[in-house]
Structures are given as structure tokens and as C-alpha cells.
Amino acid sequence: MLGARPRLFTTYIAGVSALGAALFIAVLTVFQGLEVSEFGWPFVVLLPFVVVGERYPLRVPRGADQGVITVSTTFAFAILLSRGTAAAMLALTLSSVAADILLRKPAWKVLFNAAQMTTSVVTAGAVLGLLTGGAPFGAPIELGTRELPAALLAAAAFYGTNVLLTVVAVAWGTQASVIDLLRRDLRFQALTAAVLLSLSPIVAAAADRSLALVPLFVVSMAAVYKSVAIYLEREFQALHDPLTGLPNRGLFTDRVEQAIVASTRLGRRTAVMMIDLDGFKEVNDTLGHPAGDRLLSDIGRRLESTLRQVDTVARLGGDEYGVVLWNVADADAVDPIVAKLRAVIESPFTFGDVTLGVEGSVGVALTPEHGDDAESLIRHADAAMYEAKRTRSGHRVYSGEDSGQTTRMTLIVGLREAIEQGSLVLHYQPKVTLRTGQTLGVEALVRWDQPGRGLVAPDAFIPLAEQTGLMGKLTRYVLDAALAQNARWRRRGLDLRVAVNISARDLQDPGFPALVDGLLRRWELEPWWVELEITESAIMSDPTRALDVLTQLHRMGVVLALDDFGTGTTSLTQLQHLPVDVIKIDKSFVVNLVAGAPDEVIVRTIIDLGRGLGLEVVAEGVESEFLWDRLGSFGCDVAQGFYLSAPVPAAELDAWMAASGRR
Ligand code: C2E
Ligand code: MG
Ligand code: MG
Predict the structure, then answer these.
(1) Confidence (pTM)
(2) Hey, whose CA ends up nearest to atom 41 of ligand 1?
(3) Are residues 581 and 432 in the same domain?
(4) pLDDT digits over 489-529, tens only?
(5) Interatomic CA distance for residues 133 and 131, integer angstroms
(6) Which domain holds residue 68?
(7) Ligand 1: does its nearest atom lie under 6 Å from the Cβ of 502?
(8) Which of 151, 157, 259, 387 is most buried (CB neighbours < 10 A)?
(9) Which of 189, 209, 239 is the last residue of a domain?
(10) 368: cis peptide before it, omega within 30°?
(11) Ligand 1 pocket member 426 (CB < 6 A)
(12) Is 47 exposed, middle or buried (0-12, 13-18, 19+ CB in 10 A)?
């Protein structure tokens, strides 16, 4: 791990470690012939406080490594005042080593921390010794009113050395600037340090008076510890997402600002990424919220462990994360990081005995090309992310051309307009009976014709419609257009069943069956000429209400299909009680249908099961003749896929049917 850091950093760590070791030996030599008993009982009484303090540090939420505060400081400094440098150094350094070993820190960190403690104590001891006219390493002093200013200055020296040593390490290890890191949390830290160190003279005085008084400090230290902990917890909650513990949007914006200032000063760039999960909704709907929650925290942890310490991962809401990278050389330097992040998102996730995968779409924006403030970088990264989703490319760097055209807000507004103005278009994909080669029906699949950018795939806007309550309007639009098309085909003597995808929202709407009934009348169609495709996850998000709507539709005579079957958790018993007529095997199983593969068993089982229950079984994703033949031999009823035809506009479908002779 150390090897991956910059050279300067490695040299620095080695240098500080060596300095600490030298000081440690020097102090012990000056006080040679030293025996622990010489330090007397104060040392023995105070030591446990130092050890406990080091073992249970309080973490400052905003900082990196430098944000560690321990109550051990109070007692170590008290030992310094009452028993001298050597005793304080031994207590603090040894307990730091013990605590770090307990926390399983790597050897170089243990050494560095020990050296840092030694150096801080020795510096403080030297200041104290010099100011009180004693030995340079500060033999025990008689603490009185006159020595108090010296003691306070020594405390400042102790704290200053300590902070500086760590901040420089963090800065060089992560290529951040020392000033920025100091500015980040100096005020809070200095305040806490002042509280802790100002108690030291009192502890020292009490120890000199009677050691029996020292345990009384347990109470006040516990109070300090507790109140700092509560303060930190509050601050943490205000700035973090409760589920994942990652920074929230507010803190993220703050971090982006800091990164921009720091990177600009070094003549480098800041990169902001927006990451949105694809397929998260399905996990949530089918496996339930506990699984969804675990997936979200899991992915947060994975993303965090992939990045450097200065970089920040935040959860911005829902299934959306933000990342800010400090000091990036150029856009090319971001590519490998995006690839790594996408890989950790895609690596399979296990919940109980189910293994699932989600994917991530990533949008990137950099200073200075795409903005020089947090707000515009975030907005442009967001736009790039939507572009990545729209084109299903997984990853996009903001390309100024569409100047903010695709932010969420403009998308929502645009989608509403598209529905109202009719710029959503339907493509139709044939479903063909395997035994006879006849076209049984078509599936209507919606696309958004965005001026100047071509057809947008449904995955890019269906989830948005679900979230914003536009889904009802969209379904109504698609149903109306698909039924109108069916009526046109029928007038020309084409007997096709038209399938429309409906969403969870529609199944929660008690007025939905009436809507379907109205449209059937409007286009003078028999109900069994219309099929509604529902995913398992749509049913499972509220099964009772969904069943109610489905039962009514079924009674009306509309054909109901269970879409993407196999990806959810519908059990055989449940399937038996669902009012469906058709199951559609998800394409993810079909495309992997190689002899002997586990997917073959799944597909065969679903086919047998479906037929056993008297259902029509459709295979999606039939991309080759090989698959067509195999599915036929398994007894599957209907095939749909690129081998037959991709989804195409109605006019092209007419041509396809004429050419393929599969009427
Ligand atoms: P779906 O209902 O499972 O639709 C099948 C998807 O598989 C379509 O993607 C289709 O283009 C694609 N596909 C067809 N044949 C093949 C093949 O051989 N290989 C592969 N790899 N893919 C194939 P599309 O059109 O992008 O639609 C994606 C999803 O968006 C649909 O999945 C459906 O859930 C949803 N959707 C589409 N239109 C609507 C709509 O009007 N309303 C609602 N609520 N959802 C819709
Ligand atoms: Mg479908
Ligand atoms: Mg499907």
C-alpha cells in the first residue's frame, strides 16, 4: 500500500519515523539509569488513561486521518508536567503502539504514529524546559502560577507538532494541499485540543497533591468524551446519509468546492462523477427494502474502498451516488477510475441465497472545461449521466453540446411535454409461434423521439416517469396508441394481439381496469386482442392491490402476461394463484442457453412448469436460429427476439410480415 504512494510521501514517513526513534533513544539516554519506579506512582495511575484514550479515539467526521482526537492527550500532558518528558514520552508512545496494534494498523503506520507522539512530547518538553529555565527535555517542574504560561505554550507546541506531522503526511500521501487540509477542520480540532490540554495542569496538580484524586477525573473526562462524541454524532448526522453513512448532498457540494480550490491552486483538475444504478428498482421490489438497503450500503463501501482517501463518495438520494476526485491530470486519467468503479458496482451481490447484479451509469464533468464551481460541475455530471443512460453506454464525459439539456428537471418537463404533444413513438416486435412460424402478436415498446438526438430508449425515462407520477399518463398514451394501431391492422385483416407493458403504478390504480375498458370500446376491440405485460416486481411491490386490479382485468377477458419471468421471486404456488395466461422467460436466461449450462435447466423447468399450469410460454431474447431450434425442441410456445425482428415502427412491421410470409 505504501509502495503505491508518491515518493515524497514515503521519504517523509521514513524521515519522521527515524526522527522519532532518534528522539526516543536520546531522551532515554539523557535520563539513563532510568527505572519505572523512579517515575513514581503518578505514572502508573495516569498510564491507564492514556492507553484507554488511545484505544478509543473520537473521529472527526469531516477530516481524513488527521481528525483523530483522544482524551489520552490530557493525561499524557499531565504526566509531562508532573513527571517530565521521559515519563510522558514512554506513556504516550507505548500506548499508541499498543492501541495501533490492537486496531491492526500496518507496521509503517504504527511506527509513524509512535514517532509522531514521541516528537510531539519531546517538542513540548523542550519548550517547557526552556521557558522554565530547566533542562532542555524538561525534567519535572513544580507547577505554580509562574509556570502556567510556559505550560500552556508547551501544550500549544504539543498540539501544533502533532497536527502538522499528520497533516503533512495526509497532504503528501494524497497530493492535497497542507493549507486546505488545515483549513478543513482546524477550528474544531483546536477547540477540542484546548479543552483537553487545559485540563492537564489540573490533573497534574491533583496528582502531586494526592493520587487518590486522579480517579475522580474519570467522571469529568467521561463527560468531556461523551459531549464531544454527541457533538460529533450530531455533526455527522447533519452531513451524512443515515443508511450508508456516506456524506450527503450538502457535504458533497462542500467537498467539491474544496477540491476545486485545492486543485486549481496546483494547476490541476477536479472531476465530479454522478453514478446512478441500473436495475436497483427490481432488487428493491422483488427482494424487499432490507435487501435494497443492504445493496446500497454495500455499493457505497465498495466505491469508497476503490478511491483514494481525499476523494469523496456521497449518496445523493435513491440509487444515486456522487464522487469527487481531487487533483486529476486530465479527462483521460478519469477513465480507468470510472472503469474500476463500474466493475465494483457490477460484481455480484448476494442476499440470502439469491445472487444479483446491478449496473451503474456514470457521468463525468471536469474543471475548468465543464464549470468552475460545484453547482455547475454537479449539474453537468448529472447531464452526462443521463446521456450515458440514454445511450446505454455506461459512461459519458459531459460534452458541452447539449448544455444542460438532460438534467433531471429538464427531462421531467420534456417527458411531460412529449406525452402531451405525442412525441413518444411505439415500435412493435413480433411474437412468433414456434411450431407454426405464425406471427401471433406484437409487443409495443415505447421510444421517445427527442428532437436532434434521436430515439431515447425506455430504460432512460420509464424509471423517471415512475418516480414523478407521470407513469399513469405514459401508460394511457401507449395503450391508446397501441390499441389504435391494432384497430388499423384489424381493418386490413391482420389478426394480431397487441401487448403493452404496464408498470407497478398502474397496478396500484383502482381506476385502471375502467381505463382499459374505455379504450377497448373506443377502438372497438375484443379484450382478448389485447395483452398486458406485468413484471413480477410490479406485482410484488403491493401484491394485494395489484391482485385486485389483475383479477378485474382478467375477468374482463384481457390477456395477462408475467414479463421477465425468472428474475424475481415468484414461487410456484404464487404463480398458480396469479390470474395470468402467459409467462415470458426473461432474455437473460434465454441468451445463455447453451447445452448443459445451468440456464438450460432453468429454461426447461420454466417451460414445463408453465405448460403444466396451462399457460402460454414465451421466450424473450431469441437472437439466433440455434436458440429458435432449441426452444422449439423444449416445447416452448412462442419466441420473440432479434432473430425474428428487432422492435420496429408499424410500417416496417407490415413489410416484415409480408416478406417473411409469417402471417
Ligand atoms: P421488456 O418488456 O422485457 O421488453 C423487451 C426488451 O428486450 C425490449 O427492450 C426489446 O427491445 C429487447 N429485446 C428484444 N429482443 C431482444 C433480443 O433478441 N435480445 C436482446 N438482448 N434484447 C431484446 P426495450 O424496448 O429497450 O424495452 C426495455 C424495457 O422497457 C421493456 O422490457 C419494458 O420493461 C420497458 N418498456 C418499454 N416500453 C414500455 C411501456 O410502454 N411502458 C412500460 N411501463 N414499460 C415499457
Ligand atoms: Mg415486455
Ligand atoms: Mg421482458
Answers:
(1) 0.54
(2) 446
(3) yes
(4) 999 999 999 999 999 889 989 999 999 999 999 999 999 99
(5) 5
(6) 7-239
(7) yes
(8) 259
(9) 239
(10) yes
(11) no
(12) buried
